[in-house]
Amino acid sequence: NTTSDRAQVLIEAGANVNLQDRDGFTAAMIAVKYQNVAVLKLLVAAKADLLLATSERGSNALLLAANYSE
Question: Are the beta carbons of 57 and 27 closer than 8 angstroms?
């Protein structure tokens, strides 16, 4: 199974796509960090909030994507 397959199963099971870890990072932020476009597309389709910010740095998935773009 690929990461996107596992993400799809979790989304279909009702996982909270906006859940933040203890540092405030969301699945969308992690997908951006690892440049996993397939997972990011699944999260967007599931209505993930790309503007949800970390509490510590105020960063969000869109800002991270802008920083990782070449």
Answer: no
**Cα 70 to Cα 67: distance, rounded to the nearest angstrom:** 8
pLDDT tens per residue across all 70 residues of the chain: 699 999 999 999 999 999 999 989 999 999 999 999 999 999 999 999 999 988 677 889 999 999 876 5
Give the distance from CA 26 to its chain's centroid: 5
**Residue 38 neighbours by CB distance under 10 Å:** 14
Q: How many residues does the chain have?
A: 70
Buried residues in 15-28 as b, exposed as e (16+ CB within 10 A): eebeeeeeebbbbb
